[in-house]
Structure prediction request, 381 residues.
Amino acid sequence: MTDHHPELRPDELIRYARHLTLPEVGVTGQQMLKASRVLLVGAGGLGSPAALYLAAAGVGTLGIVDDDLVDLTNLQRQVLHGMAALGLPKTVSAEARLHDLNPATAVVPIGTRLTSSNALDLVSRFDIVVDGSDNFPTRYLVNDAAVMTGRPCVYGSIFRFEGQVSVFAAPGGPCYRCLYAEPPAPDLIPSCAEAGVLGVLPGVIGTLQALEAIKWILGAGESLVGRLLLFDALKLRFRELTVKRDRSCAVCGDHPTITGPVDYEAFCGVRRGRDRVAEILPRELQTALASAEAPQVVDVREPWEWAVGRIEGSRLIPLSSLGDRLREIDGRRPVVTVCHHGARSLTARELLLAAGFCDVRSLAGGINAWSDEIDGRLARY
Prediction:
């Protein structure tokens, strides 16, 4: 962070009056906030409250990395966006909202995905990183780039009713890899779309991330370096775990073995392209359904998803009850399993194969892909 403390204009003295009366902030601290540059990775559930409070607090420059568009399912938790922003890039929506909140904060929209080729350059332009990503490849990449550029990283994650917050990659402190050296297997990682998330949860966690970033900039209080804060929304309970730097860590250890950005999509087992044996494309399924030997289409989503839209002629058997309803499926005919994006249907395929079904494939891309390519009347969600 720059040592230059820009002067506060008269209108800023009024805007930040409640900060200026705090001895821990004061005029000097507010000037430090104005001089600070924060990179926010993700303008979704975690990024929304983090961005709003960082801008409101007077952070001078806020970079926002996100390549996604605003859709209707976002609005249950991503309070940075509204109905008027549907279909717009999240960075465009975020810039407009934050400018309205605080025109003095310079928002730098970066409408691209963080990758191994741009991570070091992007992170090095800022003083601190707030990680609002929702997937393991980005999370590991943000961590490594933070370590390699000497930038602290405010980590946050959410799942259903639980959240975590910490500060990684600080001088002498642990990094994310010290806590989770290896990612879980891809088939054990349901997305928010598949597992669900309580809408207010990212508001709690993202706000705590903003708090940690502001404290770090001010040098105030005790940061979460070396501590992992766990939050259970259903029990309204906070717990804390100690996290120590792992001297054998592959990234921040005494003898690091990873010294440059890595393609973590491969590392985390994210599939590239489709499995031609396990999956069937929407147009291939459309052709098959028109043939004399049409497959059975088994939709393994939940009833409310089925109500939103479905492939004509498909049978609803939620994944949770599939094992108990195998007799409803004709083992002599081909089967195509269907879900939202194609992850649950692959799990269903494995279950059916293990139960003795021979010809089973999963619809690549799920109902959303079917809507895009075959039947646009089906709502995407």
